[in-house]
Amino acid sequence: MINLDRNSIAGLIALFLTLLSSTGTAVADVVTPEVPMGRGAQCVEPIEIMRRDHFEFIKHQRDQTVYHGIRGTRHSLAGCIDCHASKGTDGEFLPINAEGQFCQTCHTYAAVKIDCFTCHATVPD
Amino acid sequence: MLLGSIFAILFYLATVIFLVGLGERILRYSRTPAPLVIPTTPAPTTRTGVCARIFREVVFFESLFKGSKWSWLFGWLFHFGMLVALMRHLRYFTEPVWSWVILIQWAGVYAGIAMFLGLAGLWLRRLMVDRIRYISAPSDHLMLALLLAIAGSGLAMKYGQHTDIVSVKAFALGLVRFDWQPLPSDGLLILHLSFVLVLMLIFPFSKLLHAPGVFFSPTRNMRDTPREHRHVAPWANDPPRSSSE
After folding, report:
1. What is the pLDDT of residues B156-213, one digit of tens each?
2. What topology is assigned to B2-27+68-211 in CATH?
3. Cα(B233)–Cα(B214) distance, rounded to whole angstroms?
4. Are B173 and B181 in contact (CB under 8 A)?
5. Which end of chain A has less neighbouring CB within 10 Å, N or C?
């Protein structure tokens, strides 16, 4: 086993306290993604659930639609885009997977690739 | 924020113990005398050869491959699965995420599965091969259980109960930038991080020390030159005087 004398234990505690005390003095501020606000009062599901499971909803809807022919609209990707696409300065909709837009902001932050838009439209109809 | 603060303090504590403990061990290994020339032959006779041998040992687990194919298969799956899975986790600590980390994201998922399967295989071996079970200590089983729990809780978050990974990244960045952020209170995430904390805490005091230890192994890092050079351990140059003088 490690034989720690009194000095090295004091050193360890000092090191730990230094780490703790440096907490107030951030070396760099933590950035969190800032997404454009959506339109409408609220999302189809609570925000906390959407942040964790939005892809499951979209994928489930896809399976319902493609395999079973059930065309619901509650969790449709087109619905996401209708509320969450923003307009540029020229008044035209920006692609939702463009840098800084609703989908892409968090997906870039977390390094998650989006497959949806190789087929689906990125702007509302 | 309370949860985030508790885990931040625990991670700082675990990091200090991990780094200082590991450093102390490495220092001790480097000072331990190797009085005899005992490379496992056939052994290289040059320094370059020794470097190549250690490289093969560390990257391909050469001697394990020669010794036991099943252990090698599961062991290699586990270790390199873990390596790639760890590299995938760099996305939580870098902003913007490094481009090569983005490129390996897909591979990291399969690496996690490989890690889980490798560990499961190693544990089955320990349980089902009589002579291995006989020599297994409780810590051998517990270490596999801990690593399996880490891989399992991670995969369960990927494929089952998801967590808010954007908040998790903010928390991780908060740790390294000394700007604490809240941690989402999802059960699997708490479990995953707690198991990792335990791993960091016991690493410097456990069999996991074979990671730095392999580099100090005299049977691997010595040249086979006992006839060309007389090997004298440093302490043997200055023998202690006998007490009768």
Report:
1. 999 999 999 999 999 999 999 999 999 999 999 999 999 999 999 999 999 999 999 9
2. Fumarate Reductase Cytochrome B subunit (1.20.950)
3. 20
4. yes
5. N
